[in-house]
Write a structure and sequence with these properties.
The protein is mainly β. It is 4% helix and 41% strand.
Length: 620
């Protein structure tokens, strides 16, 4: 093929060209009706002859024309036209059908002009003469190919796919995101989507949110969107110029939020909801959303309000400087369910650090420098592998938090493998009122601020603990309100010494403590709690603090009694001392007498003829 023939315009070619050239010859035109008007093209002579002369591509309804001799030519689809700006397209007329062209301003987006029967879609371009250039999209498209992010969403929603957002700051009044559409930026420090002044709206919201919220709708077939997402950009809620709006407001499931930085929203940074219901009618109904590497800063409400979808997975979450709760996992029976699995959460400088009223499995929690509680658990069957809390009640730094302030508050049954709490600004270290709570290891540093380390009420189990720096205040207290039952068991090993001092129990509390202490520390102060089992302590390492002890006493030949030092911190009652001879006394009777704060006496009814031994046990 040759292309050595050039003609100024396509119209001139149609109306005047009568050259006798061979099949395959190529004619290049420099414009459609004028040179440089954007209608340039390359035309190849076909074998079809004898057609109606001088027919245009629009008349033939395809990428064809007939020259003045009735020979038919086919347009070659090449990228031979480039527009610098999108605005100049609307000023031009183009007559070629299936002509390819690009627009530099719109990220070198590719368009192909279409027959008159084609209906324009979002993102297409229309020339001055009404010819439409169809935007060519595949699994992804640049946001620069559209006038707005909403227009990009609407076009990509037809087939589903990715809208790529280059580096830069893009203002929006709101983006309604559809099922199957994912917005991807160039990184949290490169691409920012900013809410326009006075928009007072959510930056991103799922289609149909206002209808779905609170409806307990679950199935995709009922309108719940799935398979959408946002990734690799920042969201600026422009809080200084808006009084309402969240960064993300979702009702849906199986979505993906990854590497997103949300900041300065008037309301929540990220609100997500789905039904408490379950079940699947198709493969689209899998619930598991994916949230990974999300930062939420300086929002007026909660950092994250998670009300579903249940079974969601959260990787790394960092809410901070928010006016509400850093992250709140919530549940309402028959409405929504915020059950989730959370890998790592670091929440700090919020009003409250973290709260869950839905069942959540936390792998690691670090909560610090919040104005109030670091963590509130109010859900059955919550499990926490690692919990670290310090510098909470930060508004009282340099003074002491109000009486009753709680750094960690367990209101319902919770399983914590390892907890380490420092009460820098006073307050109760860990307060437990949820029956059935289990803590494998608790380390609480009171920093000698005069509060309570571990405050327990109602049937708890703490396996191993180290509570220290309570030279003033109370390290361990059974019965949070001082009169309710506080039954719990604490045991330690020698490799994790328990440092308790100033331990107290509620009047009806029951404490079973098998622990190690160091010299100078005491387990308990005040009046011994009532009931024979109310304060049952085995102390190892400091006999002055023991409330339970055992031993072997002997009566020498000719003796009728022996005095035994029981080594207990308090006077045991007669009923709490047991003595048993180690051999047959041949009818000689024995009894207990003279119990004091330090000793008791074993007596026999006849002078011993051999040395007699008695095993004994005593407790306060």
């Amino acid at each position: 093929m040759s292309s050595n023939i050039k003609i100024n315009t396509t119209q001139e070619f149609i109306n005047s060209f009568k050259g006798n050239v061979s099949v395959g010859t190529i004619v290049a035109t420099l414009g459609y009706s004028a040179v440089g008007d954007g209608g340039s093209a390359q035309w190849e002579k076909s074998a079809t002859t004898g057609q109606t002369p001088s027919r245009t591509p629009i008349q033939l309804g395809d990428s064809l024309l007939n020259d003045a001799s009735g020979n038919q030519w086919t347009m070659l689809l090449t990228n031979d036209v480039e527009f610098k700006t999108f605005a100049e397209i609307a000023t031009l007329s183009i007559g070629n059908v299936y002509q390819k062209f690009t627009c530099r301003e719109r990220g070198n987006a590719l368009y192909i002009t279409q027959p008159s029967s084609y209906s324009a879609l979002a993102g297409d371009v229309t020339f001055a003469n009404g010819v439409v250039g169809a935007l060519q999209i595949g699994v992804s498209v640049s946001s620069l190919s559209f006038s707005t992010l909403q227009e990009a969403n609407n076009r990509m929603a037809i087939i589903g796919g990715i809208v790529n957002i280059p580096a830069g700051i893009y203002e929006t009044t709101q983006v309604i995101i559809d099922e199957g559409v994912t917005f991807v930026g160039a990184g949290v420090d490169a691409t920012t989507i900013k809410l326009a002044n006075g928009a007072n709206a959510d930056v991103f919201i799922t289609r149909g949110f206002s209808t779905l919220t609170g409806s307990n709708t679950w199935l995709n077939s009922a309108g719940v969107p799935v398979g959408f997402g946002v990734k690799d950009f920042a969201i600026d809620g422009n809080r200084a110029n808006n009084t309402a709006g969240a960064g993300l407001r979702f009702y849906g499931k199986k979505y993906n939020v990854e590497n997103i930085y949300i900041f300065d929203c008037a309301e929540d940074g990220f609100y997500t909801e789905c039904a408490a219901a379950g079940g699947q009618s198709s493969r689209k109904d899998a619930p598991e959303s994916q949230i990974h590497n999300v930062w939420i800063r300086n929002c007026g409400g909660n950092g994250l309000t998670y009300r579903g979808p249940h079974d969601g997975v959260i990787g790394n979450l960092f809410p901070f400087l928010c006016g509400g709760i850093g992250a709140s996992f919530e549940q309402s029976l028959g409405v929504y369910d915020g059950a989730a699995d959370v890998g790592y959460i670091h929440t700090y400088a919020n009003d409250v650090g973290l709260s869950n009223a839905a069942r959540v499995n936390f792998n690691y929690i670090q909560t610090e420098s919040n104005s109030k509680q670091g963590y509130i658990c109010n859900s059955l069957d919550t499990q926490v592998t690692q919990l670290r809390a310090f510098k909470n009640w930060r508004d009282f730094e340099g003074s002491t938090a109000p009486v009753g302030s709680k750094n960690i508050e367990i209101l319902n049954a919770c399983k914590i493998t390892n907890a380490k709490v420092r009460t820098d600004n006073g307050g109760i270290g860990i307060s437990v009122t949820g029956s059935g709570t289990y803590i494998g290891y608790a380390e609480i540093d009171g920093e000698n601020k005069g509060s309570v380390g571990l405050d327990i009420d109602a049937n708890q189990v703490i396996s191993t603990s180290r509570i220290y720096n309570f030279s003033i205040g109370t390290a361990l207290r059974s019965g949070v309100t001082g009169g309710t039952n506080g039954n719990f068991t604490i045991s330690t090993t020698r490799n994790s010494l328990t440092h308790f001092n100033n331990v107290s129990a509620g009047a009806a509390g029951s404490l079973s403590l098998d622990a190690f202490t160091t010299a100078g520390e005491t387990f308990k102060s005040g009046v011994n709690p009532s009931g024979t089992e109310s304060f049952n302590v085995v102390s190892r390492g400091d006999t002055s603090a023991q409330s339970k002890n055992t031993g072997l006493a002997s009566l020498t030949i000719g003796a009728t009694s022996t005095v035994v030092s029981h080594g207990l911190a308090y006077t045991p009652s007669v009923t709490n001392i047991k003595i048993t001879p180690t051999s047959n006394l041949d009818g000689v009777s024995f009894w207990l007498s003279s119990v004091t704060a330090t000793t008791f006496q074993i007596n026999i009814s006849a002078t011993s003829v051999t040395t007699e031994f008695f095993s004994w046990s005593a407790k306060t």
